[in-house]
Amino acid sequence: MTLPNRLLPWQQHLWEHLGSYIAQQRIPQALLITGNKGLGKQQLANQFAIALLCAAPQADGTACGHCSSCLLVNAKTHPDFIHVQPEEPGKGITIGQIRNLITRLTLKPQFEMYRVVIVNPADKMNNAAANAFLKCLEEPTERTLIILITEKPAKLPATIISRCQKLAVATPDKETVVDWLAKTLQSKSPPAPLLQRGDLLCNISLAQGAPLLALDYANDGILTLRNECFAAWMAIAKQRKSPVIIAEDWHKLPAMPLIFWLTSWVIDLTKCVYHSQVENLYNPDLHGQLQELSGQLELKGLYKLYDLLLAGRQRLDTQINKQLLFEEILIQWHELNRSK
User: Fold this and answer.
1) Is the predicted pLDDT of residue 297 greater than 80, yes or no?
2) Is the distance from CB of 313 to CB of 325 less than 8 angstroms?
3) DSSP-based helix, strand, coil % in the chain, nearest 5
């Protein structure tokens, strides 16, 4: 029997920490798992949850996969395994959902082991929901663990954070990610086309070192899309394409990765001005074009564009018109190159 969400290689030391809770029978009331997107926070939380639900865990603390609880987890019907998440993508977790959770937690767990609640992403609770959620933490129920998952802990109220044990998932080293990504792509059925090390590194760089995000990028051909966007960006720099027309095309693309690509190109241009080593760039495969361009641009203008990109990244969480945002960015990029 294969349980979902196996431990990932870079999570072993984190599992040892979680396993010590089980071994010492000191399960926290609430656990806050933080870390960037694509590091496997949900997988780690699930692994801990099913271990607590399992009636016959293995020597290392992981679930057996064969008991009645594990079978219910596999079937996604375990009554003591509760997930709270936005009801629709892009929406928040509402006070109604939290009130329903509070009602469920007034009842005892149905099995003899623990009951586990996973709230992901926890930062999507609106103010009313977060205030109501405090009741779950202030009045804990027996044999119940609440796991909060977020990549934006600063958005959680301090009153919630202070009542949780903390576990931070760090970005693994590059070689660990390269090895895992290559093996994972080859283990697919049918195996994915063998990627050269340079392409693997590019996908990892685009994902800011996050292995699961790099895997998604490799599967979805994101590197090709990034190269197309870079070609358009360079065409604007050479006054060959209109920033308004490119912005009209770009607003249909995923905004967050695109803003990151733009920011990384500006950072790399700045590094090229100071003759930074190729391996220190976000986009080492683009070094030649970036180096050539960097000698013609004013640092003051690059810093100004960088500030605009940072502000734009913050505004993505609002009801912003993405096309107008990209127009503003690309027009400033166009003007920066026209004045060189």
Assistant:
1) yes
2) no
3) 55, 10, 35
Q: Which DSSP category does 93 fall into?
A: B
CA distance 186 to 192: 6
Q: Concatenate the DSSP letters of all residues of 118-183 into one string.
A: EETTGGGB-HHHHHHHHHHHHSPPTTEEEEEEES-GGGS-HHHHTTSEEEE-PPPPHHHHHHHHHH
Nearest partner of 90 among 332, 312, 291, 256, judged by Cα: 256
CA angle at 135 for the pair 72 and 22, rounded to the nearest 5°: 45
> Which candidate, 257, 222, 211, places its Cα nearest to that of 39?
211
CATH for the 223-338 domain, from 1.20.272.10, 1.10.3720.10, 1.20.120.1200, 2.60.40.10: 1.20.272.10
Q: What is the third-level CATH fold of 9-168?
A: Rossmann fold (3.40.50)
- How far is Cα 293 from Cα 238, in angstroms, rounded to an integer? 10
Average pLDDT over residues 73-94: 91
State the pairing for strand pair 165-168/144-150: unpaired
Residue with tokens 């990627």: 195
Phi–psi pair at 145, nearest 5 degrees: -115, 130
- Token couple for 260: 């990151």
As a whole-number percent, the residues of the chain with pLDDT over 90 amount to: 62
